Amino acid sequence: MGAITPKRSDYLSWDEYFMGVAKLSALRSKDPNSQVGACIVDQDKKIRSMGYNGFPRGCSDDEFPWAREGDTLDTKYAYVCHSELNAILNYRGGSLEGCSIYVTLFPCNECAKAIIQAGIKTVVYADNKYDGTPSVEASKKLMNAAGVRYYQYQPTQREIKFTV
Questions:
Q1: What are the tens digits of pLDDT across the range 84-105?
Q2: DSSP readout, the chain?
Q3: Catalytic residues
């Protein structure tokens, strides 16, 4: 029997892999200001669903507004579906009980409610640029009360390159 070739040691960790999928999903968003992605994973490390922020199915992203300021009906806020909610609603396989969600931005309070109701137990987020706002504070309060664990993804200094 010959010498055993050792396995690669520079492979992606699970957190790197799933956050990478969430970041890739975010690139599908047509929002000119905020591109957010989400990836839902079960306990066996299988991807259940993905989502990104955008308008609901059938609502043209050429006809609805992308503006951030102005009257409510003239801004995106009344129409855009967040990445977390999209990932939850995109899943057609039954229960998401016990799953984890990787998201590029800390969930707002509305998404926190959907996460809790879906049975998702862990939130891994990349950025929390709205920390301290009422929406994020409410989100933390809800998730703490419901026993949903959350933690910030710790990126490595690794540069990920795609080769073909």
A1: 999 999 999 889 999 999 999 9
A2: --PPPPPPS-PPPHHHHHHHHHHHHHTT---SS---EEEEE-TTS-EEEEEESBPPTTS-TTTS---SSSSGGGSGGGTPBPHHHHHHHH--SS--TT-EEEEEEPPPHHHHHHHHHHT--EEEEEE-TTTTSHHHHHHHHHHHHHT-EEEE----SPPP----
A3: 84
